[in-house]
Fold each of these.
Amino acid sequence: MSYTPRETVEKTGFSLDTLRYYERIGLLDGVDRNPGGQRVFTDDDLAWLGILRCLRDTGMPIQRMLRYAELAREGDGTFAERAELLEEHDREIEAKIAALRDEQCRIREKIRWYRDTAPERPHSGVTSGDSSV
């Protein structure tokens, strides 16, 4: 199946500017064009964009995304290196999640403190500010 740029934007959540940028820097390779010069995306392009979305949303830097794309274009002989690159990224994601969990615990402790310390009274919807830290 083929998709117009607008359909691709709708399906992937990437902006048209991002699609153009990814094509210009080499993250998106071999996008066909119709006789009028408009990009025509395929299911394979959308699947690749899905991978790029995942990598971007999980914080992979563009340079490493480019390395991953380069390895993918080189073919099956790069499976091990691609797996290593993704394993490294996975470890970084785990570290970020752990750090966020630690911060979440601090926030939950503060919530408990407020719940345990706050005087029992109906909520007026107006706050005078919180001088505690």
Amino acid sequence: MLRPTQRTAFVATVLSQMHAPYRWGAKGERDGVTQQRLFDCSGLVTWALREVCGPDWRGSHNTDRLWADCVRVSPGEAPKPGDLVLYHSKADPSDPEHVMVYLGDGLVVGAAGGGRRTLTLEDAKLADARVKVFQTPHYRPGFMGFARLPLAG
């Protein structure tokens, strides 16, 4: 599991990308014109994990793999800052389609507001798709639960 210092660094790294634009499939690469980093939801998580301490899952881990490979937080256990929050698709409650990062005090952060059709900076701007904070893990339907990232190495 993430040690407290790694957990704190992971959260800080995610927060360092506040307002970065959403782009479907983006894993932290920079836009050729603006030089802003671009992220989709799992791309932000895997980029920040690699930056701080972990394996480079950017090419291998979408929301499905994050849910499968991370340790689930039991329903009676309180989530910790840095835990992942996963959401299922409307069509299939067993299919994770979105991930955010728990900050504590009920707050979550992540690349949100976009989707498969969010492919340009203009698309992101029109959809207000970017890294942002929400006041509750239940800001959208489909809450599946919390999961813990593994320790690198």
Amino acid sequence: MTAELEPNLPSVGARVTRTRTITDQDIVRFAEVSGDTNPVHLNEAYAAQSRFGRRIAHGFLTGSMISALIGTELPGPGSIYLGQTLKFSAPVYIGDTITVSVEVTKVRADKGLVFLQTDCINQDGARVLTGEATVKYEPDPTAAP
């Protein structure tokens, strides 16, 4: 199986990005799906009294954008998350435009493992989230080469 994986593994340095503007609807829908109804995400009056001064997006809403990029683009379909570290360094507000980047830092071809640097940057260039992911990559055997 290892021999089949090697040609399909991404190269060190391969990088992709995706950009999305966070909306009120994103936050409300994430709260519904996750069950995280912390008022700092959903209640303007409560959030105004918080250290953030206004509502913020869930940290894992931002983190889920990393998962989407890994599962659809790099490495792509066939990616199985094995681990992810996340460091939240700044809040994400409604209306912030977040650019997610995923970059291959190491490949273990013998195991089909891909190691990635993951970052989320806002429209002002501030890093709001950073981390590292480990992915087992098993490309779709029915996909055309």
